[in-house]
Design brief:
This protein has 13 helices and no strands. The chain has 218 residues and is mostly helical. The chain starts with a helix and ends with a helix. It binds a DNA duplex (10 and 10 nucleotides) through α9.
DNA sequence: ATCCCGGATT
DNA sequence: AATCCGGGAT
C-alpha cells in the first residue's frame, strides 16, 4: 500500500504532464476544463480551453454571450449536449457569486458534474482531498488485485475502499495527477506497459505477465 | 441497463 | 472495417 503510493508519486514527479488547466487557479475556468475533459482527450480540449479562458474569463462573460456561444465552444469537441450544460453551468456559477459551490452536495447537484468531475475538481483545483474512482482507476485496481473489472465502478465497494486507502491525506493532488496520467500512459486499456510499470511487482496482473515472459524467454 | 460521440486500437 | 473506450444522465 505505502509502496504503491510512493512509486506512483515518484513516477508522477517525472511524468505528470502540464496542461493549461492544471496550473490554472480560477475556480470557474478549472471546472469548465473538467467538464470539457469528460470523454475527451486532453489534446482536443487544449485549444478550446484557451479560447474559453480568453473570451470568457468569468462565468458572467459566458452568461452574457449566451447559449450559442457556449455551444460554439463544445461543438469542436463533438459532444453536442455539453453546450447547454456549459451554459447552465455558467448561469449557476454566476448566480453563486462567480464561484462554483464547493460542498460536494451542491457541486454534484449541477447537471453535468458527476462523481468523477466533482472529485477531480475538488482535489486538483480546490485543495480538498477527494478520492477519484473512474473507469481508469477501476481498470488499474482490478489488475492490481486480480479482481474482476467492472467498467462502471458504481457500487463496487472494494474499489472505493481501496482507492480511499491509497489516496494520501496530504499529497492527494500529486497522487491523483499521477494516477490520472499513469492509467493513461502505462496501465492502458488494451496493451498495458507492464515491463516499464513501477508497480509491476505489486500487481497481480503485472506479475503474471512478467512470469509468462520469463518462461518464454531463454 | 442504455445511450451519447468521436477518437484510438486492432 | 470493426470493436473498444469513457462520465454522466436517465
Amino acid at each position: 500500500m505505502r509502496r504503491v503510493r510512493r512509486h506512483l508519486l515518484t513516477w508522477g514527479r517525472a511524468n505528470v504532464r502540464d496542461f493549461p488547466w492544471r496550473s490554472e487557479t480560477d475556480p470557474w475556468l478549472t471546472l469548465v476544463a473538467e467538464m470539457l475533459l469528460q470523454r475527451t482527450r486532453a489534446a482536443q480540449v487544449e485549444p478550446v480551453f484557451r479560447e474559453v479562458r480568453e473570451r470568457y474569463p468569468a462565468a458572467a462573460d459566458l452568461v452574457r454571450a449566451g447559449p450559442d456561444a457556449a455551444a460554439a465552444m463544445t461543438a469542436r469537441l463533438g459532444i453536442h449536449w455539453r453546450g447547454p450544460l456549459l451554459y447552465r453551468l455558467a448561469e449557476t456559477v454566476h448566480a453563486n457569486g462567480g464561484v462554483p459551490p464547493e460542498s460536494p452536495g451542491a457541486l454534484r447537484a449541477i447537471t453535468g458534474v458527476g462523481p468523477y468531475t466533482a472529485a477531480a475538481w475538488l482535489s486538483l483545483h480546490r485543495g480538498r482531498r477527494a478520492v477519484i474512482v473512474d473507469s481508469n482507476v477501476a481498470r488499474w485496481l482490478s489488475r492490481m488485485t486480480g479482481r474482476p473489472y467492472h467498467r462502471d465502478p458504481h457500487g463496487v465497494r472494494w474499489l472505493y475502499d481501496l482507492a480511499g486507502r491509497l489516496t494520501p491525506a496530504r499529497a492527494y493532488r500529486d497522487y491523483n495527477l499521477a494516477v490520472l496520467d499513469f492509467t493513461m500512459a502505462i496501465c492502458t486499456p488494451r496493451a498495458p506497459s507492464c515491463p516499464v510499470c513501477p508497480l509491476r511487482r505489486d500487481c497481480v496482473y503485472g506479475r503474471t505477465r512478467m512470469d509468462a515472459d520469463t518462461h518464454h524467454a531463454r
